[in-house]
Structures are given as structure tokens and as C-alpha cells.
Design goal:
Blueprint: E1 2-5, H1 7-18, H2 22-41, E2 48-49, E3 54-59, E4 62-69, E5 74-82
Parallel strand pairs: 1-5
Antiparallel strand pairs: 2-3, 3-4, 4-5
Length: 88
């Protein structure tokens, strides 16, 4: 499957990225590459279902919301946020 990121998701990812240290930026870049590879090969197996084609995936400190268009063979990430640490 082809993986696409909506403009909104890319903006959100960019906002998260720019506040990180260089080491954290490198780790996030590697995570995004791994996320793209995994979404391309097995999107139906990832995260939790929200409807037949919409899923939420918690991965590497991020929350991704994506949908799957099986007819077009496209996965679209349309929202990305960071997992917030639990308050003690």
C-alpha cells in the first residue's frame, strides 16, 4: 500500500519535531521511517479500529490516526499527536 500524510498531519509532526533535541529528532525520524514501512505492509493489523477503515495506533510515543482505502491501496495518516505522560 502507498502511505500518504495529510497536510494537517505533516504540520503536526513538524510542530512536534522542532522542539526536540537533535538526538530526539534523529530518533523521531527513524520512527517515522519505521511507521511508514509498517503502514505500507500491514495497516489492518495496527492499533485499534474506530470504524471499518479508520484506526488509531500508539507507537513510539506518538498517536496516529489513519484510514485505509483498500480500493485505492492507500493509507492516509490524518492526525499525529504525542502521548502525554501520566501525571503523578
Amino acid at each position: 500500500m502507498r502511505v500518504e500524510w495529510s497536510e494537517k498531519a505533516l504540520d503536526q509532526l513538524s510542530d512536534l519535531y522542532v522542539v526536540l533535541s537533535l538526538i530526539e529528532q534523529d530518533a523521531m525520524a527513524k520512527s517515522v521511517s519505521r511507521i511508514n514501512r509498517t503502514l505500507a505492509t500491514s495497516p489492518h493489523e495496527l492499533g485499534e479500529s474506530r470504524s471499518p477503515w479508520v484506526r488509531v495506533w500508539f507507537v513510539d510515543g506518538l498517536i496516529l490516526r489513519f484510514d485505509i482505502d483498500p480500493a485505492e491501496q492507500v493509507v492516509t495518516v490524518y492526525e499525529v499527536t504525542r502521548v502525554r505522560p501520566k501525571k503523578r
